[in-house]
Every structure is written in C-alpha cells, then in structure tokens.
Amino acid sequence: MVNWLYVALQAILNGLLTGALYALIGMGMALIFGVMRIVNFAHGAFLMLGMYATYVLFQATGGSPYYQFPVAGILLFVVGYATYMVLLRPIRGQVDFMVILLTMGLALILTDGAQLIFGADYHQINIPLLSRNIHLGSQISLNAPWLVSFAIALVLACALYWVVTHTMFGRAARAIAQNPYAAPLMGINVNRVQAISFGIGSAAAGIAGALLLPVFYLFPEVGNQFKLKSFVMVVLGGMGSIQGAAIAGLVLGVVESLTSLYWGNEWALAVDFVLFILVLSLKPSGIFGSQRA
Amino acid sequence: MRKWQALIAAVFLSTALFVPFLVSTDYTLQILFRVFLFAALGLAWNLVGGYAGQLSLGHAAYFGVGAYGLALFSKLGISPWASVFLGVVLAMISAAMIGIVSFRLRGPYFALCTIAFAEVLRLVAKNLPSVTGGDVGMQVPLLFTHSTIRFFYWAGVLLTAFAFALSAWIERSRFGYYLMAIREDQDTALSVGVNATRCKLWALVISAAITGLGGALYASMFLFIVPDQVPAMDISTEIAIVAMLGGAGSLLGPLLGSVVLESASEIFKNVFKEANLLIYGVLIVVVVLFMPEGIVGAITRKLSLFKKAPTAPFAAPLPVSAEEESERMVLNK
Fold first, then answer.
1. What integer pLDDT is reported at residue A159 of this predicted model?
2. Which of B127, B237, B314 is the closest to A270 by Cβ?
3. Contact present, A193 and A172 (Cβ < 8 Å)
4. Do B55 and A97 touch (CB under 8 A)?
5. What letters, b where the CB count within 10 A reaches 16 and e where it falls short, cover A5-21?
C-alpha cells in the first residue's frame, strides 16, 4: 500500500539504532572538548582499541561483547587517564595547534601499533544473536544486536548525563568548562577533573567500540571514520554540550540512513561533512542550543 | 640567521641538482624526488601554518585538485603542461573558496573545517566513477618522456627552490609581517589595520598553487591516482608534519623536516612494513613534547642562547573571560 512510507520508517529506525552508538562516541568527545577544549584526534583510535580488546577477550572466553563491554570501558578509562597525565598535562597552556598534533601523533602510534600486532586483516566475530530479527508488524524488522546495543548505549548515555549534571565531579567539570581560570580559585583540582574527564570520554569511545564489534568489521583503521563523525557531532551539538552531542548522534544516524537509502551508502559520510561545514559557517554555536555541559 | 639559512639552502639545492649524475638507481632518485616534493609542500604549508599560524589539515585538497586537474584536463584532450597549469589555477580557486568559509573560524574549528573540505573532495572523487574513475583510479599523462625519473627529480628540486625563494621573499615583505602579526595576535593585528582575512586568503591561495603543482608532479610520476591515496588525510598530515618537525615559521624548517621524515620513513618501511606511519606518530609526539619549535627552532635557540632570550614562536594566549574566549575561539569578527 504505502510502501515507501514503510521503507522510510525502517530507515529512520535503523538510523536511530546506529545513532545511539554515535551518540555515545560523540558524548565522550564532547565531554573532553567541553572540559579541556581539546579536539581529541585519538578518539577513533581509542574506539579501535576498545574493539580489539573486546575481540581478544571474545577469542579467549567466547563470551558475548554485550556483557563484556565494561572491560573495554575500564581499559580505555585507564588509557585515557594515562594519556592525559603523561602526554597532555605537560603541554597544557600551549596553543591548540600543539594539542591537535599530539593527539594525531598518538592516533598514528595506536593505529599502526595495532597493525603491527594484529595485522591489517579484517576480523569479524560471530554470536548467535546476530541472526535474530525482531519484527514489528509485517513490514518492519529490527536486527536484535543493534537493538541490544541501542539499549545499552541509551542507558550509558543517560548515566553519563546524570554524572555530569548531578555529581560533584560533574559540577566541577562544568565549572571548568564554564571558566577554566575561575574554577581552580574555587578549590577545584583541575588536573584531576580533567584527567578523569579524559578517562571517561575515552571509556565511552571504548565501550562504543565493544558494542560495535559484533555488527561491524574490525581493522586497525576502523576508528578513522568514527573520529570524523565525532567531530561532526560535537560541532552539531554545540561546543562541548554533551546532551547536544547525544542528540546530534541520533540525528546523524538518521541522516546517514536516509542518505544511504535515497542516494547510496557511499554518500553518507560526504553528507555528514557538508552538514558539518554548513553548521560551522552558518551557526557555529551548534544547532542544538548554545547551552554547554 | 636568516642569511645563513638562505645560504645553506642555496648550496644544498644547487648541489642537489648534480645528484642524478652520481646516483645510478632509479629507486634512490624516486625517494629523493619524494624528499624534495614534500620539502616544497612543507614550504607551501608553512606560509599558512607557519607564518600565519593557521593549522591547515586539509592541504591534500589542493594536492588532489592539482593531481586530478592534470588527469581530467588531459583526458579532455588538452596538452599535459597546459593541464598542469589549469589544475594549478583550479587549486587556487578552490583554496579561495575553502578559505572564505574556513577563515571565518579560529583554532581547532579552522583545522576541522579544512579536514572536512578535503574529505568532501576525496569522497566526491571516490563517488563519481563516470568522471574520476572512482575507486579504480585515473590514468595520468607523463610529463617527461625522456629520462623520466631524472627530470621529475629536477622538477622537484626546482619546485623546492621556487617555494624557498618565494618564502624568503614573503618573509621579508610587508605581507609576511602581516601574516606573522596575525599569528602572534590576530585581534591586535586587526586593531592596527591589518586586513587579516585578505592576508590569510592570499597566503592560502599562494600555498595552494605550489601544493597543486606538487600534486600534479606526484600524480604524473606515479602515472595513476586513486581517491584514497591522493586527496587523502595522510597527505594532509604528512605535509603539516614535515613543516612542524623542521620548524613551522622558519625558512629552513620544512626542508630539514622533509629530509629527516622521509629518510626515517624509508628506513622504517623496511623494518615495520605496513606500519610505517608509526614513526610519524613517534616523531610528532617527540617534537610536540620536547621541541615545540621544531628542529630548526631548537638549533637556533641553542646557538643564540648567549645572545638573547629565546622567544617561542607560538605564545600561549592570555587569559580572557570565558564568554569572550568561547566566542573568540569560534568566530573571527
């Protein structure tokens, strides 16, 4: 009957499912950006690390990534915390030029390090859940693993939002985002809060990687596209606003899904960037309000 | 110091012209071509990234436009050298267009915007197979049909010499001082009447011309281009790193950076095989942490230790109020 409507609805639902994972990645980036004004070019490499960690774990234990994802989160929290302490803290106060270069260098080291250890081959894992589909009516079906990852990402995104808005840590982080010069005068340990923020942001990327593993291919450069998308989300959501980045993630998922449907999959990333350039040039404070995390 | 740099470069480049008579293998010459090509690209990047202090991470766009310009125009039946010229013009036009949009932004936003433009160009080249051959790639005509590698090498050396001479001239010109003033403090530069946007645009257009020419040379040397290789992020990064490693904002920096980086990458290619970018990463981290002024900057500081206090090329901005800062960071007013 109205077949195109079902097709579009299906694409939008698929987009939302993908978008939840994007949202998780984007929120991590936005937290880092908001608290530190650091554009983290290693965000994609952190996601890749999370994927490989989960992959190794899966090969060793055979357990599903859907309940082993916290391991990737913890690992990446440690990696992020250490990255801040060892690499980023010494160059605090330098122009963002240097920070961008440093995280780019770190991304190259991690990506090519993974290539050295695991090789350039594509990997994929197989779990029983992958072949399950959930049917809504006669026309629409949703892939079960995506649904599970959507649920987990949603819970984690809400938890992250709660942490930022309702805890002492979140309050300190927001204070630093608001005014990095006044915050230490109020007794906030800027170094510690920034290190923890960097850790949490990296953990979000790592968990997103773990959740992506069953439904995606794994290879050393897998993070690059997600890194670029997280830039788009941070800008769309409005500088460092984590709820903005979350909404931007969902929007990006839907936009990509619809682009793939009507123009072809290969244009999805190009549409992301065009959207990005448009937002930057027309409304640089982001499309979802100017409120910052 | 500047005179010495010019002298060193002049001696180095004129000696380099005689290398093909001493080197017998094409392979060595090909590597040396790459060294000089990236020295020229680094010098071109230096105009925008070094003197004007605008971190462009999308120079692959102009590189790609130069390369694809040569391929596309000669496919239309235009002679190769005329196609090179048209490609360079196209690179300059695209630089002007990209610059108009992205120079309205500051700091990290500018860098991200340049990446976005370069990526859009790559994806367009990838997704229009009827025009650019898509992922399969495109054939590029050979610019030198007689003792090919030697002439490419000489072209690379000459391009470097040209870029160097141009940089040396710009560095001493009023225009060059405007650029450096913008780098040090754009708002102050604006307040004393420097037309920052116009200066940055000119710097980018000049830079894009050299980069486009480099792209055409590169494409013609390898006879074949694919979107994932030529307007790729890796090229943008490599160009920026060459200049930063040697010393952004210095004349000799990009030249030295290219020699160090390309030879290091050649050595490590044999050790690490596919993971040869690892050495780039390590070099970047070392440079940022231990010598933020680059190799030339570090040497200069050592030499002039007893003469005058060292000055950092990129001073940290003074603290300002949060709202003012967040506005300043995004938009150029």
1. 93
2. B127
3. yes
4. yes
5. eeeeebbbbbbbbbbbb
Q: What is the mean pLDDT of residues A199-213?
A: 94
Q: For residues A69 and A50, what is the distance between their CA atoms, to the nearest angstrom?
A: 9
B326/A285 Cα distance (integer angstroms): 10
pLDDT at B222: 87
Q: Does residue A96 surpass a pLDDT of 70?
A: yes
Neighbours of B172 (CB within 10 A): 11
- Chain B positions in Cβ-Cβ contact with residue A185 (cut-off 8 Å): none
A235 chain-B contacts, CB cut-off 8 A: 109, 112
Q: Which residues contact B158 (CB under 8 A, 6 or more apart)?
A: none
pLDDT for res B83 = 93
SS3 content of chain B, % helix, strand, coil (to 5): 75, 0, 25
Q: What is the pLDDT of residues A261-280, one digit of tens each?
A: 888 888 888 888 898 888 88
- The token duo for B37 is 């090509």
**Per-residue confidence at B333, pLDDT binned at 50, 70, 90?**
very low
Nearest to A101 among B101, B284, B322 (CB): B284
Mean pLDDT of B120-142: 86
In one-letter notation, the amino acid at residue B243 is A
Six-digit token string for B254: 């990009």
Average pLDDT, chain A: 88
Query: Do A193 and A238 contact (CB within 8 A), yes or no?
Result: no
Chain B residues near residue A178 by CB distance under 8 angstroms:
322
Average pLDDT over residues B225-239: 86
Number of A/B CB contacts below 8 angstroms equals 141
Q: Does B314 touch chain A (CB under 8 A)?
A: yes
CA distance A193 to A195: 5
Which residue, B39, B8, B30, B31, is CA-closest to B210? B39
Say what the ipTM of the complex is.
0.87
CA A82, A86, A92 angle in degrees (round to 5)? Answer: 115
Chain B hits for A269, Cβ within 8 Å: 119, 123
The identity of residue B267, as a single letter, is I
> Best of B326, B328, B329, B331 to disrupt the A interface by mutation (most A CBs within 10 Å)?
B326
* Residue B231 buriedness (CB in 10 A; 0-12 / 13-18 / 19+): buried
B128 contact A CB<8A = no
- Residues of chain B numbered 53-92 and touching chain A (CB < 8 Å): 53, 55, 57
List the 261-280 stretch of B: residues with Cβ below 8 A of A: 272, 274-278, 280
Confidence band of B275 (pLDDT split at 50, 70, 90): low
CATH 1.10.3470 fits A3-282, yes or no: yes
B117, A224: Cβ pair inside 8 Å? no
Q: pLDDT band at B321, cuts 50/70/90?
A: very low
Nearest chain A Cα to B114, which residue? Answer: A277
A 147-186 residues with CB < 8 A to B:
178-182
Question: B240 — contact with chain A (CB < 8 Å)?
Answer: yes
Q: Evaluate whether A115 touches B274 at the Cβ level (below 8 Å).
A: yes
Give the pLDDT of residue A7: 86
First CA to last CA distance, chain B = 36
User: What Rg do the C-alpha atoms of chain A give, in angstroms?
Assistant: 19
In tens, the pLDDT along B188-217 reads 998 888 888 999 999 999 999 999 999 999
Residue B223 host element (H or E): none
